[in-house]
Amino acid sequence: MSEKGKIREIRGKTIIVAPEISDSCFGCMKMECKANGGILFAENIMDLHLEIGQTVELKRQKSPILGQSVLALLPPAIGFIGSFILIRLLFPEAKDATAAFIGVIMLFLFAFFIYRIRKKIPVKTSLPYIERILT
């Protein structure tokens, strides 16, 4: 996704941009703009010669959604499957309902464990970067 905006301030490689309101703003209902007081922070990773007042095009790096979702969903599933199989191996007389119940408990424990890890070590999100100067 690309956005347009005017440069308001330059702080080294971090650029403060006032975004232009466009049709693409309807998609997020301007939540990003509202969260930061109507400004966006961007990086000048291409070392462009920038000046205050220029209109620039910002591009967001694609987030590794697939990797993040696998890391969030795989451990609880492994917790359920592993505990179900382990209960069936350790206690052969246990019924499927008992193994499933313990599996569901382990699913929630593993999900809570992942939640706690993500609270302590949040996923790093990258700033948008300035792709090109428009004016």
Secondary structure elements and their pairing?
Blueprint: E1 2-11, E2 14-19, H1 25-28, H2 31-35, E3 40-43, E4 55-59, H3 65-90, H4 96-120, E5 129-133
Helix pairs in contact: 3-4
Keyword list:
135 residues; alpha+beta; 5 strands; rod-shaped; 2 domains; OB fold (Dihydrolipoamide Acetyltransferase, E2P); 22% strand; single chain; 5-stranded antiparallel beta sheet; 44% helix
Helix content: 40-55%
CATH superfamily of the largest domain: Nucleic acid-binding proteins
What is the CATH third-level topology name of the largest domain?
Answer: OB fold (Dihydrolipoamide Acetyltransferase, E2P)
> What does the largest sheet look like?
5 strands, antiparallel
- String of helices and strands: EEHHEEHHE
Write out the strand line-up for the largest beta sheet, numbering strands in chain order: 3-2-1-4-5
> What is the CATH top level name of the largest domain?
Mainly Beta
How many β-strand stretches? Answer: 5
Please give the count of helices: 4
Q: What form results from the Cα inertia axes?
A: rod-shaped
Radius of gyration: 23 Å
- Label the structural class: alpha+beta
Q: List unreliable stretches of 5+ residues.
A: none
N-C termini distance: 20 Å
- What is the CATH architecture annotation of the largest domain? Beta Barrel
Instruction: Output mean pLDDT.
Output: 85
Proportion of beta-strand residues: 15-25%
